[in-house]
Amino acid sequence: MKKSYRIKKEKEFKKIIYRKDSYANRNFVVYICPAEENPHFRVGLSVGKKIGNAVTRNYVKRLMRESLFELKDNIKPGFDVVLIARPNIVGLSLVEVKNNIQHVFKLANIIE
């Protein structure tokens, strides 16, 4: 994804999580915050050490990024999103990850 679609700074992560506007399913937790200054959405990914070793965590992040890339046309603009993976994510395929992300975004009402 392009740099303009990413959230990287810890300060921005904390700002979004502090609002406590969260939605969850079995595999993901999503924190959202409206962002007026951006004409599109921005996403920050978080995969904790409970998921596995570095290789597993990076693989999960790649699956999440690819799923978001496929869903980006359906996501409403003007939101900052932090997507946190839960330990159940290990072993899921790309299609299952995409469906889970789509489900949690529908719960958050940020997908069309």
Automatic annotation (TrEMBL):
Catalytic activity, reaction form: Endonucleolytic cleavage of RNA, removing 5'-extranucleotides from tRNA precursor
Cellular component GO terms held in the UniProt record: ribonuclease P complex
Keyword Protein transport: no
GO biological process, one term: tRNA 5'-leader removal
GO MF term set: 3'-tRNA processing endoribonuclease activity; ribonuclease P activity; tRNA binding
InterPro entries, alphabetized: Ribosomal_Su5_D2-typ_SF, Ribsml_uS5_D2-typ_fold_subgr, RNase_P, RNase_P_CS
Pfam family, one: Ribonuclease_P
Group of enzyme by EC: hydrolase
TM ranges: none
Database matches in PROSITE patterns: RIBONUCLEASE_P
EC number: 3.1.26.5
Domain of life per record: Bacteria
Alphabetical keyword list: Endonuclease, Hydrolase, Nuclease, RNA-binding, tRNA processing
PANTHER family tied to this protein: RIBONUCLEASE P PROTEIN COMPONENT
Quaternary data: Consists of a catalytic RNA component (M1 or rnpB) and a protein subunit.
Family: Belongs to the RnpA family.
Task performed by this protein: RNaseP catalyzes the removal of the 5'-leader sequence from pre-tRNA to produce the mature 5'-terminus. It can also cleave other RNA substrates such as 4.5S RNA. The protein component plays an auxiliary but essential role in vivo by binding to the 5'-leader sequence and broadening the substrate specificity of the ribozyme.
Protein name, per record: Ribonuclease P protein component
Originating species: Vagococcus carniphilus
